[in-house]
User: Fold RH09956p from Drosophila melanogaster.
Amino acid sequence: QFTVVAFNVQLSGCKHKMLLRMTQFLCLAALVLLSLMQLTQAVATPNNNNNNNNNIKPKAVVQVQPGNPSGNKPAVATTTIKPQRLVPDPKCLQPLDVGPCRMSLERFYYNKDSKACETFKYGGCRGNDNRWGFRQTCEEACIPKE
Assistant:
């Protein structure tokens, strides 16, 4: 159960205890927003229940910004960059599938024979999960870093 402003909303539907009147549209908008927040949190939070956590290795990067002419010391900030995969995402091992529709959308797929992300024309429906909108996304998911 989530609390948004003065409303208690359950993701199972638009059941809610209202302190103010809420239209069905606002209820659905709140559900979409909460779903996106939950999805974002799930993607950003590592899955501690999965024993296969050594597939991803985060790296820390130290950034030093120069001091200013008045003599202040440089500022040091430590940030963590995107985790790098040590093994390919299982989706990458699926064969190329353009789908049955006839749109001609440029997408990328991982070709396990050439061990590279290559372009293909996606039909716009169905297909499989070895389909990426950007070459960089495909490479980050499918080409392991050492």
